[in-house]
Automatic annotation (TrEMBL):
Alphabetical list of Pfam families matching this protein: PfkB
Gene3D superfamilies per UniProt: 3.40.1190.20
Residues in Carbohydrate kinase PfkB domain copies: 42-259, 314-371
Record key words, sorted: Kinase, Signal, Transferase
Keyword Chloroplast: no
Signal peptide: 1-16
PROSITE patterns cross-referenced by the UniProt entry: PFKB_KINASES_2
Lineage, highest ranks first: Eukaryota, Viridiplantae, Streptophyta, Embryophyta, Tracheophyta
Protein name: Carbohydrate kinase PfkB domain-containing protein
Record-linked PANTHER family: PFKB-LIKE CARBOHYDRATE KINASE FAMILY PROTEIN, PHOSPHOTRANSFERASE SYSTEM TRANSPORT PROTEIN
Originating organism: Brassica oleracea
Family of this protein: Belongs to the carbohydrate kinase PfkB family.
Length: 384
């Protein structure tokens, strides 16, 4: 075991020295507010294979990479490269992997000064197998210890870490700690964006405080028990009165968003959400190579909700350019945070976030091809 540990440490440290992540500087855009993320950091060991191995088979990888990972770290790396002032609250082990993960984040412009170091801990790590035949990836996660706990957050730390923050990003993985942070953020009128991947213990309390929710494909129906995805999005707005919008990501099919529009009262009669979704699909250009955003009129819906439905297509990436979808959802969230913090319209924000996610899919790992604000794929949105 000690030999394996030394080998992995060597790979991490040597790759960190030789990587190109410090070859491009990134400047924070003046006047932009701060985004704060709280969650787990882990190390990703990524390999690409011609096809996924069958039991007892020995195969060779076609490429290998070691890179920082975890939803929170990926999302903030994306936001920082785009020019947002980004800050992270997490716990890492006092080992070579933990130190390397922090250095990698700092090289992309993420403020790690509020991270907690566990003297006798072990870092989280993740094996990622990318199947070139099916363009899918399989993750095997090994949790480290100890987790970030509420006792790690003193009153002064909470006050300092939230200073000048506009939006916090949480995932529910460190539920008690994230809840404490979210409650403090709520008391300071700091907006809360939650990534809801699957049902977790304590997630409901975080959802109650959230202003924005980005959900995996199956979460809305799993959480609400609704018969369809559109009705599940509506049910979430009904059950969570603080929620301004909820997004359901659909991978290569883009995403669907339902926005609450409380200040607009249409004169039309109540519309069935499934019929509205079907009608919107009929008028959406799914043949476009670049992402398009199509939205409905503000509509009266069930449950005394007035809202607008959006369908956003994903960028069609040529098979020769599609490398790895690891972290695409985190990149989308990073783009979304940028739009929210810079007052883009929702249509612009959703299209922009889709372009950012597509950039991520063109390299191995969640961070390799995350765009800087000068990247031609996103520069037009940013005026860079």
């Amino acid at each position: 075991m000690s030999h394996l540990y030394l080998l992995l440490s060597y790979l991490v440290l040597t790759q960190g020295r030789n990587s190109d992540m410090t070859s491009r500087s990134n400047k924070v855009v003046p006047g932009h507010p701060i985004v704060l993320g709280c969650g787990q950091l882990c190390l990703d060991y990524l390999v690409t294979v011609p096809s996924f191995p069958v039991p007892d088979q020995k195969i060779r990888c076609t490429s290998f990479k070691v890179q920082g990972g975890g939803n929170t770290g990926n999302t903030l790396t994306c936001a920082a490269r785009l020019g947002l002032a980004s800050r992270i609250l997490a716990k890492v082990a006092d080992d070579s992997q933990g130190r390397w993960m922090l250095e990698e984040l700092e090289s992309s412009g993420v403020d790690t000064s509020f991270c907690v170091t566990a003297k006798d801990g072990v870092s989280h790590f993740n094996y990622v197998i990318v199947d070139n035949q099916t363009n899918t990836r399989t993750c095997v996660f090994t949790p480290g210890y100890p987790p970030l706990l509420p006792d790690d957050l003193t009153e002064s730390l909470l006050s300092d870490v939230l200073d000048r923050v506009r939006v916090i990003h949480v995932t529910g993985r460190s539920r008690e700690t994230e809840l404490l942070l979210a409650q403090k953020a709520h008391s300071k009128n700091v907006s809360i964006l939650i990534n809801a991947e699957k049902r977790r213990e304590g997630l409901d309390k975080l959802l109650d405080l959230a202003d924005y929710a980005v959900c995996s494909t199956h979460f809305p129906q799993d959480w609400t028990g609704s018969p369809s995805s559109p009705s599940a999005l509506l049910s979430m707005l009904i059950r969570l009165p603080k929620l301004k919008f909820v997004i359901m990501t659909l991978g290569e099919d883009g995403c669907v968003m339902l926005e609450r529009c409380p200040n607009e009262v249409p004169e039309s009669e109540e519309t069935d959400i499934d019929e509205l979704h079907e009608s919107l699909k009929q008028s959406t250009d799914f043949t476009s190579v670049l992402p398009v955003c199509n939205s409905s009129m503000v509509t009266r819906l069930k449950g005394n909700v007035t809202g607008r439905l959006y369908i956003v297509t994903a960028e069609k990436i040529p098979s020769s350019e599609l490398m790895d979808t690891t972290g695409a959802g985190d990149a989308f969230t990073g783009g979304l945070l940028y739009g929210l913090c810079t007052d883009m319209t929702l249509e612009e924000t959703l299209t922009f976030a889709s372009r950012v996610a597509a950039c991520c899919c063109r390299g191995l790992g969640a961070r390799t091809t995350l765009p800087f604000r000068t990247d031609p794929n996103v520069a037009a949105f940013l005026g860079a």
